[in-house]
Every structure is written in structure tokens, then in C-alpha cells.
Design brief:
By secondary structure, this protein is of the alpha/beta class. The protein has 15 helices and 14 strands. It folds into 2 domains: 188 residues, Rossmann fold, CATH 3.40.50; 156 residues, Rossmann fold (3-Layer(aba) Sandwich). This is Glycosyltransferase.
């Protein structure tokens, strides 16, 4: 066994556009400070299990068959394992194996001689959206139960928030927060713009559902009070969905935005009307880093409460309060500035690349205690 590190991930660290890809890139860079790192991509597919030609920098790219209704979601895929081994991916040569999310590591039978660390990003995913509340609770509860059963297979875990970590005091874990990927050196000055901004992958269910809810219940109230108000929805989404949103007056949904800094510079504030999903919403921290206060929901704000204490955030309990906070802050650049100054100071203390790298080293250093030696798998 060498001191090499293996990173398993459904997303490449070499094309960091979405929040998930950016966290993967940050994790990869932190691991490279500890040793040589190989990357294996493992993604679900409705088709048969197979290998795909890997992109430059990727050791192997496997696709595992995803059964309907999530059947066997966490069961090892022995066919995938055999294909990887035939392609010279020898899991026994790694001292540390790190997995982005629980699923990639669960699809393989990892050797007991390696230290296994799983990044529980999006842990305890909360279903919401258009599903009836009892069904959403049932789906969320079953998914959490199924995922918890897998934890005994691995040695240590990263959590993205204290909220999630506190639910599992029995696990060996570290808090690895989501952090702004490439923040400006200084936040932008406040603008007299009347534009509200949302940044995120708009094909992602919780984001899409949150925007639908905001447009249906909040945007008409805001436009009635401030007819000059504009809403920019920046992020990848199908053209038909973007066209549907642009039917609302004052709404622009251009898709992926090349110059995100310009979008923030031209906005008065941001919104994160997210009511479901898991993990933390990096869009909130990124907004504060760029100098823009954010109106959000308790679901999002709870993850940052211990560190930000509400600084830079307006937390709305319902749609009426959400629209009211947006209107109040549109007319109060001084208050927005005070919020951002407080939030940015706390951001620079708790959500930095230095903190991120230190937390990765805490669990993934190659001289950390390895699992029980042997060729057995788990």
C-alpha cells in the first residue's frame, strides 16, 4: 500500500462551475496538499453499468446502473468493481479513500486496509416542492433511514454544518463547511439598482421549486409596490423552463452567466427562497462575499446560525414576510451595507480556504490511523 489518496466523486474537480463541482475542486486541492491524488468518477445511469472514456486528469469514469425507485441505491455494484479492476484501478494501493457523497463509496467494496472518509454533503436531504407534506416527510424519513444504515461501512465523515454533525455525535467526523469558491478581495459597494438576483443550478429540484414559489407568491407583491423591480435568475436550466419564468414581468433567466461578478455588481440584493434539499446553500455565503445581503428561509439560514448569527441575512418565515423583506431592503442601501459588513467579517473568520484545508487534513492525512489491515472488503 502506498500513501496515495483516491477521490471518488460523481463530479469532476476540473470543471468547477456548479456548487457541487466547486466543492469537489476545493476538496481535490486540499487533498493534493497531503499527497498524490487519483480521481475516479462514479455516476448513476438508467442504462447498464459500464465504463466511459475518462477525461484528462481522471483515472477512470464508471457509470453504475440506477434501478427504479432507488432500489439497491447503496448496494455494491460488483460488475462495476470488476470493470474498474480490469482497467487497472487497484483500490488496495490507496492509504486513504475519500468519497464525495455517500453513494460513490457505497457502490464499491473498499479494502479494509484503507482509511475511508465520506463527505456527507446534502446529508438528510429534505424532500419538498410539489409533493404533499405527508408524502414528503415519508420520503425524507425513509431516505435518511436508508443512508444511516450505510455509515458503519466507513471510518470518518465530513459534515457541512454543525446542525448535521450534532445529530451524529458517535461518528468520527469533522465540520467541512461550504465556502465561497473564488470570492473577490473586497465586497462590491452598494448599488442603487432595483434588481434582485438568484444564483444557482436552476435544474436542481429545490432551487427550481423555490423559484416557482417565489414567483407565484412574492414577485407579484414586489412588482406592485416597486414596478421598476427586476429579477435575474442566473444558472443553468432547460430553455423551456427559463422561457416560462420570463413570462413574469421584469424577470430575466439567461441560463449560465459567464461573468458572475458583474451579475452581483449590478444587483441590489440576492434571494435564496429554498424550502427543501440538504446540506448548505453556498449561494448565501457567496452573496455576502460579493457584498450583497440575502433574503432567505429558515431552512437555509439554520445551517449558518452558529457562525453568522443572521448577519448579512434576512430570514423570512413565510411568503408575505419574504416579499416584505425584499421591499424593505430595496429601499435601504445603508442597512444592506451594515448587514454585509457584519456578515463579511464572520465569513472571513469561519469560511475560508485555510479553514477548509485544515479540516480536510484533520481526517485525511495519510499518517492518520488506517483501518484494520488486510485484504477484506466492506
Amino acid at each position: 500500500m502506498s500513501d496515495s489518496i483516491l477521490l471518488l466523486s460523481p463530479a469532476s474537480p476540473f470543471a468547477p462551475r456548479s456548487g457541487a463541482q466547486q466543492r469537489t475542486a476545493l476538496l481535490h486541492a486540499a487533498l493534493e496538499r497531503l499527497g498524490d491524488v487519483d480521481v475516479v468518477l462514479l455516476e448513476p445511469t438508467p442504462g447498464p453499468t459500464r465504463l466511459s472514456p475518462p477525461a484528462p486528469g481522471i483515472l477512470a469514469h464508471g457509470l453504475w446502473h440506477q434501478s427504479p425507485l432507488g432500489i439497491g441505491k447503496f448496494a455494491p455494484d460488483d460488475r462495476l468493481q470488476r470493470m474498474l479492476e480490469a482497467g487497472d484501478v487497484d483500490l488496495r494501493r490507496y492509504r486513504v479513500i475519500v468519497s464525495r457523497y455517500l453513494n460513490p463509496a457505497s457502490k464499491l467494496r473498499l479494502p479494509r486496509g484503507a482509511r475511508t472518509v465520506v463527505d456527507l454533503d446534502d446529508w438528510r436531504y429534505h424532500y419538498g416542492g410539489h409533493a404533499p407534506a405527508p408524502l414528503a416527510r415519508l420520503k425524507s424519513g425513509y431516505a435518511a433511514w436508508l443512508a444511516r444504515r450505510q455509515l458503519r461501512r466507513f471510518d470518518a465523515f465530513f459534515f457541512v454544518s454543525r446542525r448535521d454533525q450534532a445529530r451524529h455525535p458517535d461518528l468520527s467526523s469533522a465540520l467541512l463547511p461550504n465556502i465561497p469558491f473564488d470570492p473577490p478581495g473586497q465586497p462590491f459597494p452598494q448599488s442603487d439598482s432595483t434588481t434582485l438576483l438568484f444564483v444557482g443550478s436552476l435544474w436542481y429540484g429545490p432551487n427550481r421549486e423555490g423559484i416557482d414559489r417565489f414567483l407565484a407568491h412574492c414577485w407579484p407583491v414586489i412588482r406592485a409596490a416597486r414596478p421598476a423591480a427586476r429579477l435575474l435568475l442566473a444558472g443553468a436550466a432547460p430553455p423551456a423552463l427559463r422561457a416560462e419564468w420570463e413570462r413574469y414581468p421584469g424577470v430575466t433567466a439567461p441560463g449560465f452567466v459567464d461573468d458572475l461578478g458583474e451579475a452581483y455588481r449590478n444587483a441590489a440584493l440576492t434571494i435564496a427562497p429554498i424550502h427543501s434539499g440538504g446540506g448548505t446553500n453556498i449561494k448565501i455565503l457567496e452573496s455576502i462575499a460579493y457584498g450583497r445581503a440575502c433574503v432567505t428561509t429558515p431552512h437555509c439560514a439554520e445551517a449558518f446560525q452558529a457562525d453568522l448569527a443572521g448577519a448579512g441575512l434576512g430570514v423570512a418565515r413565510d411568503e408575505s414576510e419574504f416579499a416584505g423583506l425584499c421591499l424593505a431592503w430595496l429601499g435601504a442601501p445603508g442597512e444592506r451595507q451594515r448587514q454585509v459588513e457584519r456578515g463579511r467579517a464572520l465569513l472571513d473568520r469561519h469560511y475560508t480556504r485555510r479553514v477548509f484545508d485544515e479540516r480536510v487534513a484533520q481526517l485525511c492525512a495519510t499518517d492518520a490511523p488506517a483501518a484494520a489491515q488486510g485484504n477484506e472488503t466492506r
